[in-house]
Amino acid sequence: MAEHHLKASAETAHWGWFQAGMTPALTIDSGDVVTIDSVSGVPGSLPGEGFHIPPELHEIHERAPRNPIGPHILTGPVAVRGAQPGDVLEIRIRRIGLRQDWGYTLVRPLVGALANETEPGFIFSRLDEAAGTATLPWGTELPLDLFFGVMGVAPPPAWGAISTIQPRAHGGNIDCKELRAGATLFLPVWAEGGLFSVGDGHGRQGDGEVCVTAIETALQGEFEIHLRRDLPFDFPHAETADELIAFGTHYSLDEAARAALRRMLDWIERLTTLTRTEAYMLCSLAADVRVTQMVNQEQGCHVVLPRSALAGVMKP
Asked: What confidence category does residue 45 fall into, taking pLDDT thresholds of 50, 70 and 90?
């Protein structure tokens, strides 16, 4: 197991898009550990004096390649030697930490869950990693809950350049707060090397991300990445120590929920001796259907099943 550190810079950032065939910023072997720095914020969304701004953010604003189809600044991509379409990358999220002491939240016209009902808005929150708190400008103090909104691989080559906004089969802007440190994300590989990138750091977010932003901030993540050829996933899945998580996205929130449920039933069938009908009943009794986000055009739902619900029925 080798360890690597991929810093954010104009040379390692791509702003706004995913695409197969991008030149890797780093190439690793299966099982290696990569620490990845991210940045957040565009010109005009930075605080004044008294806050720490990662110095590379200004350089990225000036020189990083940008595609206006998407808003997110991503660090990467990281290629995994030997990864080919049909494989799966197992991304173990070992640690997440803050890289700055502030974050921002905004409301933009014509986007968000109430796109036609709200006025524009913008706030900065003060983040204190030692205390584990985010303080909003009106004094409300919320616990920090760090995760990356965007974690994804290159999409199928035929898709060309795609926006970072919509979560799809390559992962991307999943915006699931369960993907905090300790979780594992499974991403299907669509292009040689996989080409894993991260960004869109969140200090805290509620399910739904209803105003289109969380507490947007710069994070550092430590990832242990394994190449898997024994998993049939063609869409992102995740797990924690206690839960299995299946995702679904669609322009309809109802269809996103159904897609996530179908994937959970597939997973239960693969892992256990239960029939699909029995798995369906089990989900009705033990699983939660949650709204991941309802603001990224491709809306997201995830089905969460406690591992304890599978006790006694796992295949040998």
From this structure: confident
